[in-house]
Design a protein that fits this description.
This protein is α/β, with parallel strands linked by helices. The chain is 39% helix and 22% strand. Helix 1 crosses helix 10, helix 5 packs across helix 6 and helix 9 packs parallel to helix 10. The longest helix has 38 residues.
Amino acid sequence: MPVARRRPIILGLVGDSAAGKTTLTRGLTNILGPQRVTHLCTDDYHKYDRRERAQSGITPLHPDCNYMDILELHLERMHYGQPILKPVYEHSNGTLVRPEYVQPKDFVIVEGLLGFSTPVLQQFYDIKVFLDPPEDLRRIWKVKRDTSKRGYTEEQVLAELAKREKDSEQFIRPQREHADIVVRFSQPNGTSLEAAGPHLNARLVLRPTIPHPDLTYLVESADAGSGVRLLLGRDDARPVDFLEIDGTVTGEQASELETAIWQHLPDLRPVSEDQFGEYMDRNEVRRSHPLALTQLLLTYHLLRQHTSASQRFAAPVAALSRLDTANAPIPK
């Protein structure tokens, strides 16, 4: 009898360009282990390369600029543990290159611009996360990234942001309402965006659309001045929990909180600090404690879903085994 295979757990990370999707993905992959994670970027489903988009005047944020139907089919296949032949978009030069054979592993992280934009796509995620930085902060991030990695001048980046604004408002930001978790990094009050550096505050909106782990121990186990708060409030008129992490969290305080979270991740061994919580500031690697804690908490959700799926998977397999035994011929 063939052995049934447990389907992968799929996390969706959606946000506008330079919102921090790839940074979060990198940390999650390192924590879970690259051998257990498949990464899928929805930007690979662009219909047109950079030159063709410039000629037609369409932006990559518009659904008509992307093969949304193929993305839906591929996400369905990944949901059921089946491989895909994924297109590839080369960000460094804006070209479409040879497709890539992709086999889903235990966890699939799908990140990009339009991952929650259709009801079909929304149904295949176990966890949906939307990245929602303030627009002025995202503009700084985009200028730094595109001038250092993608060959643009600052003037070109700002012109492209202006060109994309209409599509961003119409197609990207509305996806926020479909997320289970909304993550926002922002500068502390009274601090300039440039000066904030790695000391950005993190605020997670935890919606009751999925079960969230009990996080009260994070606050209870920490000192009163730890800079971590769990609050009850409303978001878009819906009751939610807010998890707030101050950018002023010290290395010692962050280490205590990280240790507390690691104790609730029994399927993983703690990895070194240089494996998560890091981001690129132009060509310089920097570390953010709020980012590290955010990545650990998202890992918590992924493993919870993985454990739950394993338990659901075990019962049917056991039942099939009993049925197979019951139908076996009686030995003579």
